[in-house]
Amino acid sequence: MADRATSGGSRRARTAGRGEELPWVVVYCRTRDGKSPALDFLDSCPGKIDAQFTAVLDAVAAAPPPRFSGGGKWEAMHDDMAGWFEVRLTGPGREQFRLFCLLENADAAELERRGLLRPAIAVIAGMRKPWRTTFSERDYRDVRALGDDYRQNYPRWIAT
Amino acid sequence: MPDTERLDVSLHERRRVARMEDPEYRLAYERARREIAQTDAVINELDSLRIDLGLSKAELARRVNRNASSIRRLFTAGRTRPELPLIAALADALGADLRVVRRSDGPSSPQGENDQEGRVAAAS
């Protein structure tokens, strides 16, 4: 089955038979050991950064891809991270904060198989770095590994 | 369908509600939502104007001397931090102006003037 979770598909969630658009939901991936790297990251961020991340996620959930949404802070990633989306924020001292997300968008049967009633933004992990530095390839590989683990599970493993 | 299980997806909502108890968090969240809404409104309004005029993204790109992929990425959130000069050029190419108007619930001036509303908008 073609996976639309990372394709940025244009379908919107609708209530049965009424044609009303619903916002997507936001979920946080949970790992085998019961931890949630994304939530741990958000909890470690300055409060204002946490608030801004939440605001971007809520805005994108309300107006999901492919529409422009997130105030320029939500971006489709490329190359080895193609299929991923990141929220990009700048904090005190120009410290850079990133939240890495996957889209859960598919037909109703596939969403149900994943345990979801409607499309979702799955928040997988977050990272921070000083201004004008880069994350290593290993950092990105670790994020992709979390995403791969997350997408292997039916239903998804999410923090509750 | 076998083995299906509806997940509890309410954590994000519950977490936000709990965090909003902190006034500093609430202020940062509400400010971020306003800023995001303004940026989104401008970009989406420009895209609506483009559609109304029957212009393809490629044609609009030609009019502002950009490549088509950059304009496509702009209108689909494939690119962050849209540059104001580009936004102004797009507005001009679409026969629109960008304006900053004071919001009625914004801070008042020292003289107590309250003569303008306040937000950024693309207007044709």
Helix-strand blueprint:
The complex is a heterodimer of chains A (160) and B (124).
Chain A lengths: L12 E2 L6 E2 L2 E4 L8 H8 L2 H16 L11 E3 L8 E6 L5 E9 L3 H6 L6 E10 L7 H16 L8
Chain B lengths: L10 H9 L3 H30 L4 H7 L4 H8 L8 H10 L3 E6 L15 E6 L1
Antiparallel strand pairs in B: 1-2
Helix pairs in contact in B: 3-4
Mind explaining what this structure looks like?
The complex is a heterodimer of chains A (160) and B (124). Chain A has 160 residues and is an alpha+beta fold. Chain A contains four helices and seven strands. A five-stranded mixed β-sheet of chain A has the order 3-7-6-5-4, sandwiched between helices. Chain A has a two-stranded antiparallel sheet with strand order 1-2. Chain B has 124 residues and is mainly alpha-helical. Chain B has a two-stranded antiparallel sheet with strand order 1-2. Classes of the chains: A alpha+beta (160), B mainly alpha (124). At the A-B interface, strand 3, helix 2, strand 4 and helix 3 of A face helix 1, helix 2 and helix 4 of B.
| Relative strand content of chain A | 15-25%
End-to-end CA span of chain A: 28 Å
Structural class of chain A: alpha+beta
Order of helices and strands of chain B: HHHHHEE
Q: Superfamily at the CATH H level of the domain at 39-123 in chain B?
A: lambda repressor-like DNA-binding domains
Bin the helical content of chain A.
Answer: 25-40%
CATH topology of the domain at 39-123 in chain B: 434 Repressor (Amino-terminal Domain)
Order of helices and strands of chain A: EEEHHEEEHEH
Assign the CATH class of the domain at 39-123 in chain B: Mainly Alpha
Could you tell me the mean pLDDT of chain B? 85
Percent of residues in helices of chain B: 40-55%
CATH architecture level-2 label of the domain at 39-123 in chain B:
Orthogonal Bundle
Number of helices of chain A: 4
Give the N-to-C terminal Cα separation of chain B: 52 Å
